[in-house]
Write a structure and sequence with these properties.
CATH superfamily of the largest domain: Histidine kinase-like ATPase, C-terminal domain
Distance between the termini: 58 Å
Order of helices and strands: HHEEEEHHHEHEEHEEHHEE
Radius of gyration: 49 Å
CATH topology of the largest domain: Heat Shock Protein 90
Number of domains: 3
Strand order of the largest sheet: 6-8-9-11-10
Number of strands: 11
CATH architecture of the largest domain: 2-Layer Sandwich
Shape: elongated
C-alpha cells in the first residue's frame, strides 16, 4: 500500500505533465490544421497571381519566346514556386525547374519532383484556352527554413514548459499535499484518541476545506456521543444494580424474618413482598420489551383508530389518579380525529406519557392534554406543571435507563426505559416525539403523526 501523500504527489505530477502535453498536442494540431487551411487559401490566391502574370506576358508578346520564359522562370523563383506548361493533350512542354527546356518547348517532359504538389489552371489567350499552367509548391505546408525554424521554436518552448512543470510539480507536490493532508492527519489522530477512549482530548482541526471541516465536526460529535454513552453505561449499571438490589434486599430480609420466626406472615408483610416482586416483574418486562424494540422486531397491527375517543377513555381511566394528587386536568380534544395505526401501541404511548405527567407533577398541579389536526398532521400535546427537566438532560431523556438527577429517587423514579420504548413505538408508526421542559416550570411532550386516512 502507498501513502496518500505519495499518491497525491504522483497524481499532481501526472496531471501537470498531461496538461502540458495536451496543450503541446493541441497547438501542433492547430498549426497543421487551421494554419494549413489559411496557407492553402493564401497559396491559391498567389497561384492566380502567377497565372494572371503569365497571361499578361503572353498577351503582351503574342506568345512565349525564350526571353519571356526566362522572365517567368525568374518570377517563379522569386515566388518560390515551380511553373510548368501542359499542352491540350496534357503533355508537359516546359517547366521552370529545368532551364534547358527553354530551348526546346516542343518536346515532352515528365516532372520527376515528387516533393511538389501541382495545381492546374487554364491559360487563356483572347478568351480561349490554349494550355494549362501547373503551379507547384512543396507538399508540406511547413516547408521553408523559416517555417521549420518557427515550428522548432514553438516546440522548444513547449518542451521547456514541460520540463519546468515537471520540476515545479516535484518540488511543490509534497508541500501542497502535506498542507492539504495536515487536517486529515489530525482527524486520523482524533479517531485514534476515540479508539483509546480519550474522548475529551481531541485535537482542534483547523482547515478551510468545507468537507474536511464537516468531517472534523462529525468526529467531535461522535466523540461527545460516545462519551455520553459511556457515562450512560456507567449510570445504567448503577441504576440496574439499584433497581435489583433494593427489592431483593427487602425480599431477603422478610423471608429470613419469616424463617427465624421473628415475623408471622400476615397480609401486610406479604403485600410488601408482592409489591417488590411486581416491581421486579415490571423491570424484567420492560427489559424484554426493550430487547424487542432494539432488535427492530416491532410488528404493527394497523387499523383505523378514533384518537379522540381513545384519548377520552384513557383520561377517564387516569382521572382517579389525578384526583388522588389533586392535579387539575385540562382537556382540549378536537372531535373525530382518526388515525391509521396500532391501537395497542397507541394506548401504551399515551399511558406512558400520562404516567410521567402524573408522577412528576406535584400535588395541586396542572396537566393539560391537547389533540388537534393541522393540515395533514395530528398533534398530541401533554403539558404538566411538574419538576421539569434540566436543559442539559433533555437530549438524553430518550436514552435507555437515563434519568435526570431530579427524578432519581425511589418515590418517583422509574427504570428509565419508558420513554425509550415510547419513542420507538411512535417512530414505528412514522411519528415524531419531542420534549420541551424547564426546571420547576414543567414539561411539554409533543407527538406528531402524519394523517393517513
Amino acid at each position: 500500500m502507498t501513502g496518500i501523500n505519495r499518491q497525491l504527489g504522483r497524481y499532481f505530477i501526472i496531471v501537470a505533465l498531461l496538461s502540458v502535453g495536451f496543450i503541446t498536442l493541441v497547438a501542433n494540431i492547430s498549426i497543421n490544421l487551421f494554419f494549413s487551411n489559411y496557407i492553402k487559401e493564401t497559396r491559391s490566391k498567389d497561384d492566380l497571381k502567377v497565372v494572371h502574370y503569365v497571361e499578361q506576358l503572353y498577351s503582351d508578346n503574342s506568345g512565349l519566346d525564350p526571353q519571356a520564359l526566362m522572365i517567368i522562370m525568374h518570377y517563379a523563383y522569386s515566388e518560390s514556386v515551380t511553373v510548368r506548361f501542359r499542352d491540350m493533350q496534357g503533355n508537359i512542354i516546359w517547366s521552370s525547374g529545368t532551364p534547358e527546356t527553354m530551348h526546346d518547348t516542343t518536346r515532352d517532359y515528365e516532372a520527376d519532383d515528387s516533393s511538389l504538389a501541382f495545381q492546374g489552371y487554364p491559360l487563356h489567350y483572347k478568351d480561349k484556352k490554349i494550355a494549362t499552367i501547373d503551379v507547384g509548391r512543396p507538399k508540406s505546408i511547413i516547408s521553408s527554413l523559416e517555417d521549420k525554424q518557427f515550428l522548432r521554436t514553438i516546440n522548444s518552448v513547449f518542451a521547456s514548459a514541460f520540463l519546468f512543470s515537471l520540476v515545479l510539480a516535484i518540488l511543490y507536490s509534497s508541500r501542497i499535499s502535506k498542507r492539504f493532508l495536515k487536517p486529515i492527519y489530525q482527524i486520523k489522530e482524533n479517531a485514534k484518541l476515540i479508539e483509546d477512549g480519550k474522548y475529551k482530548k481531541l485535537n482542534n482541526v483547523e482547515t478551510n476545506t468545507y468537507e474536511l471541516h464537516d468531517l472534523s465536526i462529525s468526529v467531535k460529535e461522535l466523540a461527545d456521543r460516545l462519551d455520553d454513552q459511556d457515562t450512560l453505561r456507567k449510570r445504567m449499571t448503577a441504576d440496574i444494580a439499584h433497581e435489583l438490589r433494593t427489592p431483593l434486599s427487602i425480599l431477603q430480609s422478610h423471608i429470613e424474618a419469616f424463617m427465624d420466626g421473628v415475623w408471622e406472615p400476615d397480609i401486610e408483610k406479604l403485600s410488601v413482598l408482592h409489591n417488590e416482586i411486581t416491581r421486579l416483574t415490571k423491570l424484567i418486562k420492560e427489559l424484554s420489551d426493550l430487547s424487542v424494540i432494539e432488535g427492530d422486531e416491532i410488528e404493527l397491527n394497523k387499523s383505523e383508530i378514533n384518537l379522540s375517543i381513545l384519548l377520552h377513555e384513557l383520561i377517564d381511566s387516569f382521572e382517579p389518579i389525578f384526583i388522588g394528587k389533586n392535579i387539575h386536568l385540562h382537556k382540549k380534544i378536537q372531535d373525530d380525529i382518526r388515525f391509521f395505526g396500532d391501537e395497542e401501541y397507541m394506548k401504551r404511548i399515551i399511558i406512558n406519557i400520562f404516567s410521567n405527567a402524573c408522577k412528576y407533577t406535584n400535588d395541586d398541579g396542572d396537566v393539560k392534554v391537547t389533540l388537534e389536526q393541522l393540515n395533514d398532521t395530528l398533534i398530541l400535546t401533554v403539558e404538566d406543571s411538574g419538576i421539569g427537566i434540566p436543559k442539559e438532560d433533555i437530549r438524553h431523556v430518550f436514552e435507555r435507563f437515563y434519568r435526570s438527577d431530579l427524578s432519581r429517587n425511589r418515590g418517583t423514579g422509574g427504570t428509565g426505559i419508558g420513554l425509550t420504548i415510547t419513542r420507538a413505538l411512535v417512530e414505528a408508526q412514522n411519528g415524531k416525539i419531542r420534549i420541551e421542559s424547564e426546571v420547576s416550570k414543567g414539561t411539554k411532550v409533543i407527538i406528531e403523526f402524519v394523517h393517513e386516512i
